[in-house]
Sequence to fold (252 residues):
Amino acid sequence: MSCLVAVERRDGIGIVTLADPDRRNLLSIDMCLALSSAVADLGADSEIHAVVITGAGSAFCAGADLADLTAAASDSVSLEPVYRSFLDVAACPLPTIAAINGPAVGAGMNLALACDMRLAGQGAWFDTRFLQIGLHPGGGHGWMLLRAVGWAEASRLLLTGPRIGAEEAEAIGLVQRRVPDGQLLEAAVALAKGAAALPRELLVRTKHSLHLAAASSHAAAVMHETEQQAWSLHQPAFAERVTRIHRKVSGQ
Fold:
């Protein structure tokens, strides 16, 4: 694995750390390629049930490398690995949790938004930044921001450019919870343990169903979920859990 991204496996949970603290974990091309590779490896690991993404040092991610952005003026293909890394995180078949330990700026905010869930340390802050440097948003930023906080807040953050702290981010739903800075990673791991205790294939299928539901009608979601529920009824995990429940109720 690249020295720009560190991976730890802990009790069924993959912890991915952006590891370029001297540059505040800027999303260089090399880091993005390493991030995509790490997420793919964890997604394919049958022992891993959830993925936590965080940053080393005082920043979660300070955005894209300005040198790469400048190069994109003549060759937009140069940004493809950056945008691909967001899509790879979003497409991870496992639950993903961003543990945001400091600034999440521009493309760094994209990375946080690409995760299914977000926890923020008290010292975390968020800044879309794109328009403030004369740049149109990229990487699906607007789509992800709308999905996370709705039209009014997405418009405020993107079009007027405020920098917001962890408390405000929690209030508008950008993050699910604030955590004391020294407890952030452990809180994210504790959240991930809920997934680690569940059957992996059931997790994967349920996350896939959520993706489909986001782009379908209620009736279509019912049809899809009916098929998937029928599959789960025939899995050993269902029978085992029902037996445990019956034993607990009967005091055995």
Q: What stands out?
A: The beta strands are 5-10, 13-18, 50-55, 96-100, 103-105, 117-121, 125-127, 164-165, 177-179. The two ends are 48 Å apart (CA to CA).
